[in-house]
Amino acid sequence: MKDTAREAHDAEGRQSSAERGIVRRTMGVRLADAAAQLAAAGALIIVSLCLSLVSPVFLTFNNLFNIVAQTAVTAVIAIGMTFVIITAGIDLSVGSTAALGGMLGTLMMSHTGLSWPLAVVGGALIGGVIGLGNGLLITGAGLNPFIATLGMMSVARGLTYLTTNAVGVYGLPGDFGLLGQGLIDNIPIPLVILVIVAILAHLLLTRTRLGRYTYAIGSNQEAARLSGIPIGRYLIAIYVLQGLLAGFAGMIASSRVVSGQPNFGVGLELDVIAATVIGGASLFGGQGTIIGTLIGAFLIAVIRNGCVLLNINLYYQDVISGAVIWLAVYWDQFRRKKLATASQ
């Protein structure tokens, strides 16, 4: 009887210790997310204050509108990338997907006379098809997300050039420009769109089964599989979501210039990934928030805008962007080491 009681006591102790470990890790992840968001927000405030002091143009309405319009495109795609990166995946095809969605969406208007709202839906659906292809390559063919989306980046870009022989699409309805240039009571429509998308994505990530499974897959895919989560199905859904948002963002970008541009989105994936990681998403999976991603996207946009206002050479801008990505990844690794130490 004493042995039985001792074994039961030991089992309870182990369970209690495991539960405490889970609680510590959960609290650690939340604190790490909060710290990342505060750090990114602090950097955004500091950079904005510095630019407002050195450039009288920075706080003008036109410049702020340009920042918002540019950020809306990057941030909408980055919101989808947040889901992908939380699962410990990556999508390198988002720039090409946005270009393809924008080109085919504008072609629907110019060649078939389709109304621009329906064409926007069509462009987003084109992106969703690309996302579906990525999901099937990863879950069905068993390809690594990096390889699958790297190949898709080339395929989608090639299709973009083939659709119009690398020539822009013009002659679009003038009211199509409202999507990327319009105002509602002096509030930029791209900002309204971004807020709506961000709220819906936040609710999806924090209040639905898809969101819970996204974190579970990224934290420990094998444990998620053993617990009965249909990993393949949810990964496909996440990559389709990423594609839909990329195609939609491509239509917003096309609306800004009221034309379809085949070269749009070259290198865009770097800004998207940087914004997501700066905002606290971990490239190793299991961490990330929509709010953090928005802060990261605006920080990237403000830095790029400041480079233009200060007449910094375009090539130096690329150097700065690369350095920001290095710092973001280094910070991600540092946070994970601290979190691992604290949870032990």
Q: Can you characterise this structure?
A:
The protein has 344 residues and is mostly helical. It has one domain (30-343): ABC transporter involved in vitamin B12 uptake, BtuC (Orthogonal Bundle), CATH 1.10.3470. Helices cover 78% and strands 1% of the residues. The protein has helices at 2-54, 61-86, 94-112, 116-139, 145-164, 178-181, 189-207, 209-219, 221-226, 231-257, 268-278, 290-309, 314-343; strands at 183-184, 187-188. A two-stranded antiparallel ribbon has the order 1-2. A hairpin with a 2-residue loop joins strand 1 and strand 2. Helix 1 runs parallel beside helix 12 (290-309) and helix 1 packs antiparallel against helix 13 (314-343). The longest helix is centred in the first third of the chain and has 53 residues, at 2-54. It is globular and about 55 Å long. Mean pLDDT is 88; it is low at 17-23.
Give Rg in angstroms.
Answer: 22 Å
Helix coverage percent of residues? Answer: over 70%
Which residue ranges are poorly predicted, with pLDDT under 50 across at least 5 consecutive positions?
Answer: 17-23
**Describe the biggest sheet?**
2 strands, antiparallel
Shape: globular
Proportion of residues in extended strands? under 5%
CATH class group: Mainly Alpha
Class per helix and strand makeup = mainly alpha
CATH homologous superfamily identity: ABC transporter involved in vitamin B12 uptake, BtuC
- The CATH topology turns out to be ABC transporter involved in vitamin B12 uptake, BtuC
Contiguous helical run count: 13
Average pLDDT reading? 88
CATH architecture: Orthogonal Bundle
SSE run:
HHHHHHEEHHHHHHH
Amino- and carboxy-terminal Cα gap: 34 Å
- Strands, total number: 2
Domains (count): 1
Strand order of the largest sheet: 1-2
Subcellular location: Cell membrane
Pfam families: BPD_transp_2
InterPro entries: ABC_transp_permease
GO molecular function: transmembrane transporter activity
